[in-house]
């Protein structure tokens, strides 16, 4: 077997990254990051003008989850190949600033940095608030490790926040650029009540639209929104879900406990299982 196909990837089982991303609760973190990202006018314009997220939200979600999973659990070669595909796609895309009318590249470092920081901060803060025990050193270690993922999309790792203090400083600096735009409002409403896939049978679509599954999703959306920084919730104002930070934290802890009762085999994807198998083989070979 080619050694490049049997390595531990960018992180490995001893990393803080694997510790954080083994948490199924990160599905809430992904939704939280999207609410947060929508507040950047150019980042949101780039998505709205180049993405099929409203026509195919579930497909886009699956593709995004696969990319993140590949960077976390794939081999180094798989992660680097995924990064090259994504950067090649981004390099072709342009968008128009909703305020100035100026055209811009969506792979501008400032926009890539915003997406990266909101994602990784959402992942680690959600895991911690859900009850995952992380020391301050581990949280800083997670941000430092994630600079490797930032490099995959073309960012200079030295320009990416690598500690919790640096992330807080980054947010304080960028808040003056954030706005509650029409695109942000539409995206927030869409995230809160996404459409049910039309490929499903009519009875199943109706049950998902009006049944317990819809109520469960609204609960997850409310939790994700409530976990946003206070300044982000204030920006959404009356468009925000009526969820307090305290109730969101209680909800996310309860949800983590519920997911903990589900057999792990139902929560582990193929990328994770393959990574664990590689790690076991390499441990035996050592």
Automatic annotation (TrEMBL):
Q: What is its EC number?
A: 1.-.-.-
**Keyword field contains Cell membrane:** no
Give the InterPro entries listed for this entry: MPAB/Lcp_cat_dom (IPR018713)
What GO molecular-function term can you cite, just one? oxidoreductase activity
Q: What class of enzyme is it?
A: oxidoreductase
Q: Which Pfam families match?
A: MPAB_Lcp_cat
- Name the UniProt key words of this record, in alphabetical order: Oxidoreductase
Tell me which residues make up the ER-bound oxygenase mpaB/mpaB'/Rubber oxygenase catalytic domain: 18-256
Record carries keyword tRNA processing? no
Coiled coil ranges: none
PANTHER family, per this entry? BLR2777 PROTEIN, ER-BOUND OXYGENASE MPAB_MPAB'_RUBBER OXYGENASE CATALYTIC DOMAIN-CONTAINING PROTEIN
What's this protein's name?
Oxygenase MpaB family protein
